[in-house]
Amino acid sequence: MNNLPNYILEHLVIVLIATAIAVVIGILLGVIAYWVKWAEQAILWLVEIIQTIPSLALLALLMIFFGLGNPTIIAGLVLYALMPIVRNAHIGLTGVENHLKDAAKGMGMSRLQRLVKVEIPLSFPLIFSGIRISVVNSLSIAVMGVLIGAGGLGFPVYRGIQTNNMEMILTGAIPVVLMALVFDHLMNRFEKKLMRS
Amino acid sequence: MIRFESVTKKYGKKTILNKLSFEINQGDFVVLIGPSGCGKTTTLKSINRLIEPDGGKIYVDGRDIMKENPVELRRKIGYVIQQIGLFPNMTVEQNIAVVPKLLKVPKEEWQQRVKDLLNLVAMPYEENAHMYPSELSGGQQQRIGVLRALAASPPIVLMDEPFGALDPLTRDSLQEEVKKLQKKLKKTIVFVTHDMDEALRMADVVIFMDQGEIVQMASPEEMLQNPASPLVKSFLGKHLNNGAVLLASDVMKSRVLKVHREMQTLQSVELMRNRDVNSLIVINDDETYAGTISIERIKSAGKAGTQIGGLLTMEAPVVQVSDPAQSAFELLMESPTGYVIVLHEDQTVAGLITKTSMAKAMGETLWGGDAV
Amino acid sequence: MSFTEFIQLNQREIMSSLFQHLSLVFWAVAIGMVIAVPVGIILSRHRKMAAPVLAFAGTIQTIPGLVMLGIALIFWGIGTKPALIVLSLYAILPILRNTYTGITDINPGYVEAARGIGMTSMQRLLKVELPIATPTIIGGIRISTVYIISWATLAGLIGAGGLGDLIWTGLSTYNTNYILAGAVPSAIMAILFNLLIGGLQRGITPRGLRRVNP
Q: What are the extents of the domains in chain C?
């Protein structure tokens, strides 16, 4: 399997692109849920509903719009990654202690300044924890990309299934599980560091 | 009833109970007290085998408890812990009946028992039996906790700081209720607390522990008269009064109604009626004592629409806070007003000594406790 | 062909896939429960074993579904059996974790009170611990069910049928109607069960526990 490094790289790139997009959209939605009272429940409800949809169903539906290939799996991963990020951002932002918010108000900061300079930094550990959960989930779900014509480690796995080749399946599977465990561990450590500071 | 014979318990190298020996008689209310970590809770939990000692013997009713089945032993001993002990998934009735049910008491019997017990603490069955613990106040919850311990009519009840989490008022009334119940039902109660007030008020026998040993085991009166060590003394604190001179400030009540001398006569009469008193303490604008005014005085000399300032009398005896209580007592007995005014050094009013406040303070000194 | 026409034409196939899917999910979650709840209870009695067991179960959970199905396919061939084995395995962890934490998170005061008044270990479990932990355990079943509805769509790949079969046919023939006929019902099923079990979870919570934290 001399293509393995390529599969790993493509898998990582897919997951990282999806995570990056999900972080931006997720924090944005989290902020909207925090700022706009009437949108709060709707947003939280929506991301939970998306999370509930079976992955193959979601990917197949997305394929109708995005066609076969990497964009579809990236779109799917983004949608799945939203929930932990939005929820944690929302919990984090609403959980910032009132006296800190008041202090920021008292210093004459605008709503946006308060958000960027005080509220997001204070809730960042929690947001980061959401990102960690998303990354670990995405690494696993990305394997399904192969079913809608995307690349990554799903390719050897699926080829292995088709040819009844255990070795080939494991060639794809082991790096996925290892990456998931490594990312989980490293990000967890970083998270603990964030919490302490 | 309960006998400890050189009971020892160690956690690692730390000795919690050090060859503890004592005996508790039937029908006694025994309070275990001491600084935290002294072993009082361990002692209590050894009695129903929640904690098992490493050495020594414990007898309940003459029988070595290590030879008994712990589950059956516990069903014969009531147990009350701090507030959280009620099962949140069970109603009041289910909570109280839990031990009788474990003992397979017939339904009619335990239902009657629940009714009787709820009546004992004035919580009518119809209103309370089907409530959940979360729907009750803290004091009510702990009443139910006590009833649950009594439900199977165990001769012995263990209580582990049962009132620690309650507010002082609720605690007072629960202490009284439990003491009454104990006398009425003739239970042997072993009670752990760190509150000396509670211990002195409730105990027939106080066992004072420190570092796993008994420092003193005595009746409250005896302990107050002869504290066995400086530590016991420090715990007894304010209850000790080794002949120390009581001051006027010790026997007064400090929350008294004061009015300014500019008050209208009519207003003051109304105030006195509302408060059900027949005289008022009057102060000057700088808060210093100006005199007193009585309803009779206003009636005989006052005109509607005047201020009380002109009608004041100085007939009430006055003492300073630091005067001995004894001289205040003598003044009180002779006083035409039935009270004595107590002033701070700056002549502002510190309080009032009445026959009631005097009697309360003397009672406390004699028998301990915070009766106020 | 419009979607409605397609549905009318293939009504029977869609319905039978739906039922296959439901029965697959039902059995997987049921088997998962039968294993996870007792194991969770045992772990709550032997807490030293809990950390390694839960970590192991957690690691299994990170193995992508496709991989597990592939491995099962090689071991047991095509059909319902390998799919059911894999799905049950996935169903275990959330229920196991919630059973364990549901019991161990109970305020120690309740446990002490239960022991102190003379309950046996079994009575304590049945009368105090399990009733208090039930909402949490059902929460685990809810997570498992939603997961399994999702993973079961993959089971079509190894010939276990279900709604995944339709999606799979749609994907491989690029037939939107088939994709919709499989994806939409499976999505609705997942959302519905999530709501349903959530409602059950609230309904089954003893009244006395609703105000305090479950």
A: 16-43+50-209
**ipTM associated with this complex:** 0.84
Nearest Cα of chain A lies from the Cα of C84 at a distance, in angstroms, of 17
Q: Do the strands B2-11 and B289-294 form a parallel or antiparallel pair, or are they unpaired?
A: unpaired
Question: What's the gap in Å between the CA of B86 and the closest CA on chain C?
Answer: 7
Cβ-in-10-Å burial (0-12, 13-18, 19+) of A93 comes to buried
pTM of the predicted model as reported, rounded to 2 decimal places: 0.74
Distance of alpha carbon B29 from alpha carbon A119, whole angstroms: 57
Domain encompassing residue A82: 4-196
CB distance C149 to C22 below 8 Å: no
CB distance from C146 to chain A under 8 Å? yes
- Give the strands of the sheet with B77-80, arranged side by side: B77-80, B156-160, B188-192, B29-33, B205-210, B213-218
Chain B hits for C115, CB-CB cut-off 8 Å, are: 50, 74
Tokens, residue C210: 């609703």
Please name the chains neighbouring A, where neighbouring means 3+ C-beta pairs under 8 angstroms. Answer: C
State the CB neighbour count (10 A cutoff) for residue A149: 14
Residue of C nearest to A147 (CA): C171
Residue C145 has pLDDT above 90, yes or no: yes
Q: Lowest-confidence range among B28-37, B243-252, C66-75?
A: B243-252
How far apart CA B171 and CA B363 sit, in angstroms, is 20
Chains in touch with B (≥3 Cβ pairs < 8 A): C
Give yes or no for C92 touching A (CB within 8 A): no
Distance CA B281, CA B261 (A): 9
What are the φ and ψ backbone dihedral angles of A92, each rounded to 5 degrees?
-60, -50
Chain C residue with CA closest to A142: the answer is C64
CATH of residue A142's domain is: 1.10.3720.10
**Of C15, C210, C20, the residue nearest C132 (C-alpha):** C210
3-class DSSP string for A78-123: HHHHHHHHHHHHHHHHHHCCHHHHHHHHHCCCCHHHHHHHHHHHHH
B71 touches chain C (CB under 8 A): yes
Pairwise CA distance, residues B79 & B76, whole Å = 10
For residues B84 and C110, the answer to whether their CB atoms sit within 8 Å is yes
* Contact flag B81-C109 (C-beta cutoff 8 Å): yes
Nearest beta carbon to residue C209 from set B73, B88, B91: B88
State the residue for tokens 């190298």.
B13
Statement: residue B369 has pLDDT above 70: no
Q: Please, what is the Cα angle at A60 between A56 and A64, to 5 degrees?
A: 170
Q: Measured between CB atoms, does C5 come within 8 Å of chain B?
A: no
Nearest to A125 by CA among A185, A29, A194, A187: A194
Q: How far apart are CA C168 and CA C181, in angstroms?
A: 11
CB-nearest to C70 from A49, A52, A161 is A161
C-alpha span between C57 and C43 (Å, rounded): 13
User: Alpha helix (H) ranges present in chain A?
Assistant: 4-35, 37-52, 55-66, 70-95, 98-106, 111-113, 120-141, 154-162, 166-196
Least Cα separation, residue C206 to chain A (angstroms): 26
CA angle C41, C46, C52 (to 5 degrees): 95
Smallest CA–CA separation between C43 and chain A, in Å? Answer: 24
Structural tokens at position B199: 């211990």
Cβ neighbours of C14 in A, within 8 Å: none
Domain count, chain A: 1
- Taking residues B228-249, report their average pLDDT: 75
Q: What is the CB neighbour count within 10 angstroms for residue C77?
A: 12
Indicate the CATH number of C16-43+50-209 among 1.10.3720.10, 3.20.20.70, 1.10.730.10, 1.10.760.10. Answer: 1.10.3720.10
Per residue in A173-191, pLDDT (tens digit) is 999 999 999 999 999 899 8
DSSP annotation of B247: B
